[in-house]
UniProtKB/TrEMBL annotation, chain A:
Gene3D superfamilies reported in the protein's UniProt record: Oxidoreductase, molybdopterin-binding domain
Secretion signal span: none
Designated name of the protein: Molybdopterin-dependent oxidoreductase
InterPro entries: OxRdtase_Mopterin-bd_dom, OxRdtase_Mopterin-bd_sf
SUPFAM superfamilies in the cross-refs: Oxidoreductase molybdopterin-binding domain (SSF56524)
Oxidoreductase molybdopterin-binding domain segment(s): 105-250
TrEMBL record, chain B:
Descriptive protein name: DUF4405 domain-containing protein
GO cellular component, one term: plasma membrane
Domain of life: Bacteria
Entry keyword set: Cell membrane, Electron transport, Heme, Iron, Membrane, Metal-binding, Transmembrane, Transmembrane helix, Transport
Gene3D superfamilies with a match to the protein in the record: Transmembrane di-heme cytochromes, Chain C (1.20.950.20)
Entry annotated with the keyword Mitochondrion: no
Family: Belongs to the HupC/HyaC/HydC family.
Entry-linked PANTHER family: CYTOCHROME YDHU-RELATED, NI/FE-HYDROGENASE 1 B-TYPE CYTOCHROME SUBUNIT
Cytochrome b561 bacterial/Ni-hydrogenase domain residues: 20-206
InterPro entries: Cyt_b561_bac/Ni-Hgenase (IPR011577), Di-haem_cyt_TM (IPR016174), Hydrogenase_cytochrome (IPR051542), Ni-dep_Hydgase_cyt-B (IPR000516)
Amino acid sequence: MARMRKLLIPGVDKTLLVRDAIKTMPDLTRRRFITGGASLGALTLLTGCDVTDSFSAEEMLKQVSKFNDGVQALIFNPNAMAPTFPESAITKPFPFNAYYDLDEAPEVDGKTWKLEVRGLVENKKSWTLDELYQLPQVKQVTRHICVEGWSAIGSWTGTPLRDFLKLIGADTRAKYVWFQCADKDGYNSPLDMPTALHAQTQMTFKFGDEILPRAYGFPMKIRVPTKLGFKNPKYVISMEVTNDYKGGFWEDQGYNSFSGS
Amino acid sequence: MSAVTVSDEQAVSTKPKVIQPAWVRALHWTNAVAMVLMIMSGWQIYNASPLFGFTFPRSITLGGWLAGGLLWHFAAMWLLMVNGLIYLVLGFVTGRFRRKLLPITPEGVISDTKAALTGKLSHDDLSKYNYVQKLLYAGIIVVGILIVLSGLAIWKPVQLQYLAALFGGYEGARYVHFFCMAAIVAFMVVHVALALLVPKSLRAMIIGR
């Protein structure tokens, strides 16, 4: 834990991180906000309605969140680049953040790991790390923004995802690229195709010019500077090009699915 | 909308004078609901990564946990923004802002502040704001605009990066957003306290007269 604490940045509530972790468990406490929310929502937004009827604030909030997905997709400008920073602006130490402690983070063997490619692609061959390392790489120094509010500037180096999608003959008219991760709880996250094709969306193999350490997602992370941090999956093991919305680890628990920045 | 035209006329007929026209009342109470939802869900979001060495008690936050707070915040923001836009448009178009809030002179503010503090400020005519009211009501409109703009900058620091830059970037916008919230809460405390001290002003905001 001492090591953990050092890696956290000031301003990040540690107890909250732990609480967030607990919240990932499929228990009923997380759903309490619905009960609290339902009565308040009914009282405040629908004054005059019967508070005890079947109206669900949760349902209304879900619908608005879907609406917000649409609004964000509309205002997403594929040519707008996330601001970049000089190396001197990099946050040190860059925070480790997950719903588990660092010593519980996935430990991936780079020698046996393969990136599985599925779905609407011409070439479904799996890729070894050595093969991926051969692809041209670019570096970006951008701001990582967490859904919790804190942010940190980091340096990520890797292959633009759009180059890789082209290489494997992906159908870029498909709606999503869906990533799955090595986390034992099966972390996954969908990325809308326009964002997947954004010039700064990257298959990341290095952090700060060093091979991506375990803390930041070895062997591969998807760096998306136009999305909140939870939509930047780490320890990626497969990607699927698909028209189906397959949900995501945090998305399914209520975080807005588009979560663009 | 006929209420608009009679609103600030001197009482011409036997009809009692309308102090707060219907559109002002409707927008005021909608704004009150939106503000309370935004502030309580905003405290929930703040607690996930506090800017300062304190968090808001769970009992006064909305949403149960971060995702719930965010869902409320990004739902109520539409209510706040649409309602606020209508208010700004009508405020300018009807001339209400000009009539009610201008002019604001430093001398007027100073003398009315003195009068208020010595208990000599009159509330005989509720349709006329004194200089302290003018300053606070005009000021809170500016704060309202700032909190929406800084909120948009936090929500879309890439798509709206020029807006975010005006606030000193993403992190700067978080602080501006927080201090605007603090200003609004402080305003609300004084505003509600004074409305309760002068109940006829509260009545005017409910039934118009």
